[in-house]
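HUMAN: Mind making up another protein with tokenized structure?

ASSISTANT:
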Amino acid sequence: MGETAEQTAIREVAEETGIRGSVLAALGRIDYWFVTDGRRVHKTVHHYLMRFLGGELSDEDLEVAEVAWVPIRELPSRLAYADERRLAEVADELIDKLQSDGPAALPPLPPSSPRRRPQTHSRARHADDSAPGQHNGPGPGP
């Protein structure tokens, strides 16, 4: 059996950033369409609010140009796409709920079934052909 979307998120965050975490809440998903090897591909990326458990921030993954800790309120201005900015706003709202009302205030995770094969990432492109999530360092996105 494969892994759930939550397991994929935990694994990929660790692989791409060096950070170990646990999933607290679902933020939403973003659907991408891109062309690779002459064929059109649909990719769905599930995003989660995660708790830091440990690790050292690292950008050793070849697909990640730079990683950085960013204050949540600065995050929307550093994201290039409206759908990504909306997810950052949802994260900010959930963090406020978590701080004021505790973990019980977070919405339950939606059901997630394991996939037959592990979910992986690729150099998917937005419709305008710039890479989503590839700019994580100082300044605005591409």
